[in-house]
Design brief:
alpha/beta, 5 domains, 32 strands, globular
């Protein structure tokens, strides 16, 4: 009965919006239906309702309703025209569910009291700027927003019109929202079937799925494949079930992973009230800004996520009680399986809590003389206040260039390697938040006169900047006021880097980066930049290290899409994850990434003999289409990650996707695979070959360097070496590594 009532409300609301806002019954059709002439003024093919008397208007509206009920639009389109004079539209009709659509930029922050409020100001870019085309699109207890394109609009439209649900807007997004309503609300597909109806698992990817559900996925595809969206898209959906008291965000992504996304989780279940935040965005700096706001509003403690990752489809589901308070939450992957959340520990807000006095260091004399050993042994026992106090004491006490550089080195080590240490009951994210805040505080001090080897500048002084360095000085740049991109050196960070380089600067420290693009030596001129050193802190934007022609760049955080794209030579170190299309069209260079890389890494790259060898060391795993059309280079993928307690674990697989080496002619991929998780379906275009002595000697050196850069120690025991991971010791030996090369046979590529 609930379902019948809901569908009646939805269909009635849909029909009302159709006849009162989108379409107008043609005057002749309406008069024929009424059996009489309608005495209301008309212009063209439409009655002017606003000129009617109240009794005439009531009769007219009743007639419209009856006409619509007897002549469903989907089967009688020839009886309708496009309504020019709008009357009214139903924006949302669900229980405890509301959306707001506007053709402008005004957002109604005073939202209704409900467990769900979805707000999105984006307008459709491929259709008329009109209120009905604005996101989100709501259908009873679902709502959908969209980033990208749906290229098979007609296939989706035909599918939903089979069930008398024609689109009310003129944008591709609404047909997707109608299909989402059908499978997620009206038909209530299981979670895995919901994902499969939108983003089908095909080809080699099916072989990576558990065999017991493979047949189920194919059955859904037989029904839904033809109307599954095509093109580059990311749907952010909301589904609400008032009867089960559940509400959820559903992340739907195209199966080819063409659209960027980053997901972030923050979870604290250590007090009487559990708190949970799930965020998805296109780039990390948006996540960072959101967490800062939530921390400021005392909703969470700390502005750092517990986990950041890329998801190919996920449900963030919350359950609420009669007072609309959330009392339970869970994550579901695209195959309907629960995602296990690690207990991150107790959180701490460094911005809201003030230290009343400096910490007493009498029990920690000389701790900073060997800070790596000190924190490795004592981090677990230190309280948040003690950890914070030790760092703040050093930042506040810095009084010389030597002390400044030593403290920055200490803070940078913590920033990069906290994830490898055991924090005890404390959340690693909150410790990292403390470290990042102290890095900002220290670099803010670079403008003080006592530090002669550092010169600090922000955007306010960019236009008047005319200083040249002396004796290898470092230029410290506060990026927060600069635009993310542009050509004006007084406004754009990348342009200012070029301006500073032309003034002779070669050592750069950039902090408070927030989505700034093309932070690279590439902007510094047309020649080689081998004498440049750059350290970057914050959440950078796309094209980090792209087009490098020399120098050393260290990123103390995650990179986004197109990292080290078109790299010629130089050294790039990323102490975090990297995004999509990493290393595209590179010709050489040395790259280290202390995390995963997303799809299409090093596509169309070549090991050009005219420049530095292309050598890549990845602590984590690649994803789909790795090494597509690759023509050279040596790559190592460890397939490892650290958990919330600093312990080392194997990823689900050494490579997280399929279609490796498609169209590739030459390269060497080495995977650490002690449990034989890499399967042939992932490298159909490649082949597994044994190491020669020379190859193993080369890769042994690169593997050891990767572990060293990741703060991973090899344990020597009985003449052998071991790695401690997955809670056990695994021997470091050639037999636990796999060498994959392109299968070859492509005519014209034999010499590469």
């Amino acid at each position: 009965l609930h379902k019948a009532e809901d569908l009646f409300v939805l269909n009635h609301s849909h029909d009302l919006t159709r006849i009162l806002y989108v379409s107008s019954a043609l005057p002749e059709e309406l008069e024929n239906y009424a059996g009489k002439k309608i005495n209301i003024s008309r212009v063209g093919e439409e009655f002017l309702f606003y000129e009617a008397e109240p009794t005439e208007l009531l009769e007219y509206l009743s007639l419209l309703r009856d006409f619509m009920q007897d002549h469903a639009y989907e089967h009688h389109k020839h009886r309708y025209g496009l309504r020019v004079h709008k009357i009214a539209a139903v924006m949302s009709c669900g229980k405890n569910f509301a959306i707001w659509k506007t053709a402008g930029r005004r957002i109604p922050w005073q939202t209704p009291d409900a467990p769900n409020n979805i707000i999105h100001i984006r307008l459709a870019t491929g259709s008329a700027v009109e209120q009905m085309n604005a996101h989100p699109f709501s259908k009873l207890h679902t709502a959908l927003t969209h980033n990208g394109e749906t290229t098979n609009y007609e296939a989706l439209r035909q599918r939903v019109e089979q069930f008398n649900l024609s689109p009310l807007a003129s944008t591709d997004t609404e047909v997707a929202s109608l299909k989402f309503h059908l499978v997620a609300d009206e038909w209530e597909y299981p979670d895995w079937a919901l994902f499969e109806s939108f983003s089908p698992t095909t080809g080699d990817d099916l072989k990576l799925v558990d065999p017991e559900i493979r047949a189920q996925l194919e059955q859904v595809q037989r029904v839904e494949f033809a109307s599954s969206p095509d093109g580059p898209y990311q749907y952010l959906c909301l589904r609400h079930n008032p009867y089960r008291k559940a509400t959820e965000r559903v992340d739907l992504k195209d199966p080819a992973d063409l659209r960027p996304n980053i997901s972030a989780l923050w979870c604290d279940a250590n007090k009487s009230e559990s708190r949970f935040v799930s965020i998805i965005a296109s780039e990390e700096h948006a996540v960072r800004k959101m967490l800062e706001l939530l921390d400021r509003e005392k909703i969470i403690d700390g502005a750092e996520a517990d986990q950041t990752f890329v998801n190919s489809g996920m449900i963030s589901r919350c359950y609420f009680d009669d007072t609309c308070q959330i009392n339970k939450f869970e994550l579901i992957d695209r195959y309907g399986k629960p995602v296990q959340l690690e207990n991150s520990g107790e959180h701490y807000s460094v911005r809201r809590k003030i230290l009343s006095q400096a910490i007493d260091e009498s029990g920690y004399q000389g701790w900073d003389e060997n800070y790596q050993r000190f924190f490795s042994e004592n981090l677990k026992k230190l309280s948040f206040v003690e950890f914070r106090g030790l760092l703040e004491n050093r930042v506040n006490a810095a009084a010389s260039d030597l002390e400044f550089s030593r403290i920055l080195e200490l803070l940078s080590w913590l920033n990069d390697y906290l994830k490898t240490l055991d924090p005890g009951t404390k959340a690693l994210s909150s410790l990292l938040d403390i470290v990042k805040l102290n890095i900002d505080r220290l670099l803010d001090r670079a403008g003080e006169e006592i530090f002669t080897n550092y010169f600090r500048i922000d955007q306010n002084a960019a236009y008047s900047f005319d200083r040249s360095p002396e004796n290898g000085d470092s230029l410290v740049i506060d990026a927060s006021g600069f635009l993310q991109e542009g050509t004006d050196p007084g406004l754009s960070l990348a342009s200012f880097l070029s301006f500073a380089y032309n003034h002779g600067w070669r050592n750069f420290i950039i902090y408070r980066a927030s989505g700034h693009r093309l932070i690279s030596t590439a902007v510094m001129g047309s020649g080689d930049t081998d004498d440049v050193q750059m350290d970057v802190y914050g959440a950078v934007g796309e094209y980090f290290g792209a087009f490098m022609k020399g120098g050393v760049i260290r990123l103390h955080g995650n990179a986004q899409n197109f990292c080290c794209m078109c790299m010629h030579h130089g050294e790039l170190y990323v102490f975090g994850h990297a995004g999509k299309v990493c290393g595209y069209a590179s010709k050489g260079g040395k790259v280290f990434i202390m995390g995963n890389v997303v799809d299409r890494c090093w596509t169309n790259s070549v090991n050009d003999s005219r420049c530095q060898d292309l050598e890549v060391m990845i602590l984590g795993s690649p994803n789909k289409y790795a090494g597509e059309s690759l023509m050279g280079g040596r790559f190592f993928f460890a397939g490892l990650h650290f958990d919330q307690k600093g312990r080392l674990w194997l990823n689900q697989r050494p490579c997280l996707g399929s279609k490796m080496f498609g169209g590739a002619s030459r390269a060497e991929f080495v995977f650490f695979d002690p449990e034989d998780r890499l399967i042939h379906a992932q490298y159909n275009h490649g082949k597994l070959i044994p190491f020669t002595d020379e190859q193993w000697q080369i890769f042994d050196k690169k593997i050891r360097e990767t572990f060293s850069l990741s703060n991973i120690q090899l344990i020597k025991q009985g003449g052998a070496e071991f790695l401690e991971l997955n809670g056990k010791e695994i021997e470091y030996c050639k037999e636990n590594f796999k060498l994959i090369v392109p299968r070859g046979g492509l005519k014209g590529y034999e010499s590469h």
